[in-house]
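pasting for the record
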Amino acid sequence: MLGANLYYMRYKDQLILTGEINDVGAPIMVNVDKSYRSGIELQVGIKLASQLKWDVNATFSKNKIINFTEFVDDWDTWGQRSFELGETDLAFSPGTIVNSQLSYSPVEKFNIRFISLFVGDQFIDNTSSESRKLDAYFVNNLRVDYSFSTGLFKEIIIHAVANNLMNVMYESNAWVYSYFYEGKRQKMDGYYPQAGRYFMFGVDFKF
């Protein structure tokens, strides 16, 4: 199986995240006059053997503000400074995302899946500044499912999941607040580190 989708979306007054949070920790959003998202989405499915298949989907994109003006608080004057930055990247919009799932079913109703996710670099505000960016990360998970029927339940499904098998240290979200103080640009920021290797077990009952 092979699929591809090309897309181009042009926006007027798109509501976007700024990378800031308010006094209760909620994300702040703002409208930008002109922006766009364009790219290609790919899907590939291969049956490697009667009990083994591999599914991959990927997105490669550009996510841009056409002419971005940054406003930064100035604590010395209690005003703001503005900076015309031209075309910049939309915050929290990685240019590359790839998902892979390798599935193996040695017997009926027993399934083993090796799941991989790659997320490319992404900026945490709309300035395309290298100092305000989330690095790319690549994580792998292993999931085992087994299902069976009983007289009481139509189906019972047992799950066992090992997440982040390689114990990768990464952050998937962040916030940043920039300001000027004593004539120098400063910032306050926070990053959300994700869990290392961890395990989950579950049971589903279907009537």
